[in-house]
Amino acid sequence: MKTHCSKDALLTGVNTVQKAVSGKNVEPDLQSIFLRAEAGKLIFLATDMEIGIRCEVPAETETEGTLLLPAKLFSDIVRKLPDTQITLESQAESANLEYYQSQIFLKGYDPEQFPLLPDLLDPVSFSLPSESFKTMIRETLIAAAQEESRPIFKGLLLEMEGSVLRLIATDTHRLAYSQSGIDNPNGLDFSGIVPSKTMSEIYRLLKDDDDSITVRFTGSHVSFQFGAVHLLTRLIEGQFPNYKQVIPSSCRTKIRLLVKDLMESVERASLLARESSAGVSLVRLEISGDLLKIEHTTDIGKISEQLSIEKEGADITISFNSRFILDVLRVLPSDQMRFELSGPQSAAIIRTPADENYLYLLLPVRTN
Amino acid sequence: MKTHCSKDALLTGVNTVQKAVSGKNVEPDLQSIFLRAEAGKLIFLATDMEIGIRCEVPAETETEGTLLLPAKLFSDIVRKLPDTQITLESQAESANLEYYQSQIFLKGYDPEQFPLLPDLLDPVSFSLPSESFKTMIRETLIAAAQEESRPIFKGLLLEMEGSVLRLIATDTHRLAYSQSGIDNPNGLDFSGIVPSKTMSEIYRLLKDDDDSITVRFTGSHVSFQFGAVHLLTRLIEGQFPNYKQVIPSSCRTKIRLLVKDLMESVERASLLARESSAGVSLVRLEISGDLLKIEHTTDIGKISEQLSIEKEGADITISFNSRFILDVLRVLPSDQMRFELSGPQSAAIIRTPADENYLYLLLPVRTN
């Protein structure tokens, strides 16, 4: 192969596929980036067999062909290339990069060793605006389990029912739910659990100027296409919890307050808790009249915060894991928030006036 | 004590003194910040007995007094305070912070336990423009030894001789030298080795709008005063190498080239070297005619860079540790640089046309 493209194009390619490159626990030739030069473009591909990313960038191709290059070294070299036109040529399994009067020769691997990704050319598909999808990911990803949990909790449920698309995540302590209207003329339904890592990659790679995202799926895989990027991922096997059952339909107390106020008060209260011997940092909310009080006493000090709120319904005192509150406050898209409570032992719901299609449910912590 | 000041003032205080707070290997009450409220100001003090930093911020003091507070927790709390007026009051050894309708009570220690810093009120002193001093630090600090070295190499020689101030650092492989004219009407001479940590703190704390810096010294300590900051440090004991002896006064080859060109080429060549088994990353410069060639071959690939240069004198081929070259290229204040060479086994000198009072000497590496 022989092709010419800008340093920026190469950089876009390696940055886009990097997170799909296998980690250090596989053979070196699998920690690689596959390149294919075609007329007018250079295609980048990487996969760790869980997730595969494909990206194409503009290039002037003289001779078509393929290369399989060590991902880390090739990416590092691309980052350091001068900002000019680069010629990339294969010499057997190796690559030769030329710029100005300089050149880099880099040993590669046999491109035939690169695993083929499943083809989803003819599956069920629909599209939605990329901006809405980005918001949905941002608001739900926070509730997915991080580590040491059953696989289904480390993914997000992607569900299409009629003209509604839903994204739901839970780690059993809290649940985030977001929905959006979609164009689904064929009335196709789908439900699958997408790994969190895939979702955060989509979030990272989606640009604000990507018009729409096309989702295609089979029983075991789902693919997302936007701009010049094509991302394919395995689905997580298993039964996702019945989220409809756990979302309460009414509440006894409803308060409105400023996101920033609550966030800063909980952050300060957490500082004292963190230094104490406990472990989980609890925050106790005392709602009384038009005031929300947060009090926390440890052996190193005491904090007492007081916030103005608008309230409907009964007074209540309830405790939460402060991290679970902070997680959602940091992603809410508006200054205002609503807290819906039904008792010190019942699930609470946080909503935002900016997006009525979103809710965050969290379980209280029992205290004495 | 009772005083009122802005959140920003408190933040300036804790950020300024934080690097002087003792690490975790001392008693908790020494990992602390000392506060003294006086008329119109609040004074912050911290010391690990090597370095002491004092800073004052504007405050409306109602009652004078002192407090000794746990540094990390107090700093974290200050960072999270709302952007408003804060009232800070002592209650026995504890602090009470008030803002809006909220308050934080934080246990402290007996202020009498805070170690006194030596007083340098009446020592030898001179001043110099802070901008010049910042440049001198930036250009020389890179050559000081980092770890596992004799103490004298982990400091910078601060030397005043007549109306010349010098700053010199060396780790025995390279040496950085910078000088500046100063106002020294009393003709006082001084020479002392200042810890690198102190120098990087001064660099961090010096603001561009600080007019000048006043330096005072005794035999064992030196202090630096600028803006509202007063920094005191122990000197390192020992004999600094005779730098005058090692700086060559002439050279056989002189080349001029662009800093950016050399930096990027050496960075790329280092990438290949880093991946090889060697350890130290060598770079071989081949100067021939009006070209500088960098060639590097390892078992994973080969790089061949070629740069245009202006040359006076003989052709030469010489090898360096590439990190030692990159360190200086990253701090040179101009686009242009000069390389002075006297043979493949002789010390080389890098200079910048933007500052004729600066030089960086480095020893070549012998290769076969």
Automatic annotation (TrEMBL), chains A, B:
Per the record, its GO cellular-component terms are: cytoplasm; DNA polymerase III complex
Record bears the keyword Transferase: yes
Q: By its UniProt entry, which SMART domains does this protein fall under?
A: POL3Bc
Q: Where does the DNA polymerase III beta sliding clamp C-terminal domain start and stop, copy by copy?
A: 244-366
Family to which the UniProt record says this protein belongs: Belongs to the beta sliding clamp family.
Q: What does this protein do?
A: Confers DNA tethering and processivity to DNA polymerases and other proteins. Acts as a clamp, forming a ring around DNA (a reaction catalyzed by the clamp-loading complex) which diffuses in an ATP-independent manner freely and bidirectionally along dsDNA. Initially characterized for its ability to contact the catalytic subunit of DNA polymerase III (Pol III), a complex, multichain enzyme responsible for most of the replicative synthesis in bacteria; Pol III exhibits 3'-5' exonuclease proofreading activity.
Q: How does it assemble?
A: Forms a ring-shaped head-to-tail homodimer around DNA.
Q: What is this protein called?
A: Beta sliding clamp
